Every structure is written in structure tokens, then in C-alpha cells.
Amino acid sequence: MTDVFDPSHKDAHEQVVFCADAHSGLRAIIAIHNTALGPALGGTRFYPYASEQAALADVLNLSRGMAYKNALAGLDHGGGKAVIIGDPSRDKSEALLRAYGRFIESLGGRYITACDVGTYSEDMDVVARESRFVTGRTLAQGGAGDSSILTAFGVFQGMRASAERVWGTPSLLGRRVGVEGVGKVGHRLVELLREDGAEVVICDVSEQAIERVRQRRPEVEVVADAEALTSADIDVFAPCALGGALDDATVARLRAKVVCGAANNQLAHPGVEKQLAERDILYAPDYVVNSGGVIQVADEIRGFDMDRARAKAAGIYDTTLKIFEIASDEGVPPAVAADRLAERRMSEVGRIRAIWLSH
């Protein structure tokens, strides 16, 4: 387990908060990785973790990823994340969400939350009844609505940049794209890919999710599972389910030339990025290309404007290309180049924020 108090470790966190309310059944962990660029911003994941240790490991990893994501998205926000331990289909209630909102409010704005796996805009409306520090609310409540809209759009921009790098054109026309997970983000990505002329192959553990895609896009091919998808003859692999999709076995059998998807923490362990590079597979770092959602909810803080947020999310294309160029120039995998660029911004802007201002 990572030592969260070790300042020499890249995963050292500023603050980790454990939240419990026996009456509602709330068990949550809020992790603030850093606030160098501003208040931490990141979603709330509601998931039936096998143990508290598994939940802690996930929230620490996810909050670090948010720090890097927000930095490269050009946002004035640090990285944070929260997890609620439980089955959202069974354990979610108004009382639990409002209790959670009280804990968010108690942090005084150091952490701003939004949606993630297992939570929706309607849930954020409930949390916002107890806290000012909530984004991703419904349009009816003055929020940005479903952040999966710009998440999928941003992934598509990253995929266009990847196509430009590998095939010399920012188009997926005629390319065969395998999408693992067609939930909130994945099914929207399928729409964008089909509109661009790509052939699409999908898999998902949920038959309901697959059926939703089939109803809109009956031409989309369905395979049994992730192993079948990654073994298929595809040009692009888009992991859009949970993390850890790229492990040793997956990389070894992967036939795609590009990996670009919406899932967080796609690399199962350090070193996978080198294996991809050695196999000449271009990896678009997940926290770069899936930042459209956080761009969308961050815009809500200043009064949401979809056109403005979409224009900023379109910049993911240029950021992804820049990372590929740095990787090539410095002879490192794109994941390493992305980390360096994010750390540079956190360091440079964070240092400026040390200049004292009177209030």
C-alpha cells in the first residue's frame, strides 16, 4: 500500500478523509492529491469494492490521475477523487447522498465533486442540497448535465490525433475500432466513430448496454468479451470500461496500432507503456484524452456554456499531438511525456501561487 505521507513518493497526497454515517450506511473516502493549481476537482465513484483497502487503493490512484488530467486540460484545479463503498443499485439513497454532501461541505472548498462510475447528474443535485462544492448537476438545476458527452468527444479528438500520427490523417474513416465498454461514455463514442465512417466492434459485460447500441447501430459487431476484442483484427483499441485493461497478456495479443480510450488508469502496472512502445503500438495517455468530462464540469463553476466547454475540449486534439511530439523528441513513451508535461505545469504555476496576495 502506498505511504500517503511519504513526500518523496509520486503518489504522496495532501489529504485523505474517511467519511461514515451509520444511519444512512455511508462509507466514503475522499482523497486530495494536491491543490497546486487550485481546489481539487474530481468525481465520486459509487462501487461495491471487495474491501476498504481496495477502495483506498483506487481512490488514491484516481485522485493522482485527476491532478495530472486537470493540469494537462489547462484547468486551475488540483486533483481529487472520492469513492463511496457499496452497490449503487441497492445502497444509494437520498439520506446517504446528503450525508456525503455534508462531508464535502466540511472541506470548505478544498475538494469539488462531480459524477463518476455509479453516480449521475441527478445524484449530484441531491449532494448539492448539502454542499456548494458540487458540479455535474442536471441542466434543470443550472448544471452542466451529463459529463459523458464531452468525455466521449474528447476521446474522439485524441483518437483523431492518434490517427494523424500513425496514418497521416485525422480521420477514422475505414478504420476498425474495438470499443471495450459501451456504458455512459462508450456508447457515445460509438456514435462519433460511426459518424466519422469507422467500423466498430464492441463488447460489454452488460447485455443491456449492448442492446442499447444495437438498437441505434445494428451494423455494429459484437464479440463475447475483452479477450476476443483485443485479439480481433482492429486498428484501434478503445478501453472504456474500468481500469487495468492493458496488462502483459493483453498487450501481447493486441493487434491494434493505436490504444485510445476513456477508461481511467488503463495501464495495469508500470512498464506496460514500454511494452506498447516496443510493439510499435501508439498509446494515447488516458488522462489526456478522457479529460473532456472534467472540462465540462469545471466550466459549470463559472456558469455553464456548452459551446465554450466544447471548444476547450476540442483542444485535446492539439494536446495529444504535442505529447506525441515530446515523446518522439525525448525518446520516451507518450505516457512518460504526458507525466512530464503535467508535472511541469503543476510546478511552474504552483510556484507562482506562492506569491502572497492580500484578501
From TrEMBL:
CDD domains: NAD_bind_Leu_Phe_Val_DH. Residues 145-354 form the Glutamate/phenylalanine/leucine/valine/L-tryptophan dehydrogenase C-terminal domain. The keyword Nucleotide-binding applies. Keywords: NAD, Nucleotide-binding, Oxidoreductase. NAD(+) binds at G181, V182, G183, K184, V185, G186. GO terms for molecular function: nucleotide binding; valine dehydrogenase (NAD+) activity. The active site is at K81 (proton donor/acceptor). SMART domains: ELFV_dehydrog. Its EC number is 1.4.1.23. The keyword Nucleotide-binding applies. It holds the Pfam family ELFV_dehydrog_N. GO terms for biological process: amino acid metabolic process. Belongs to the Glu/Leu/Phe/Val dehydrogenases family. This is Valine dehydrogenase (NAD+). It comes from Nonomuraea muscovyensis.
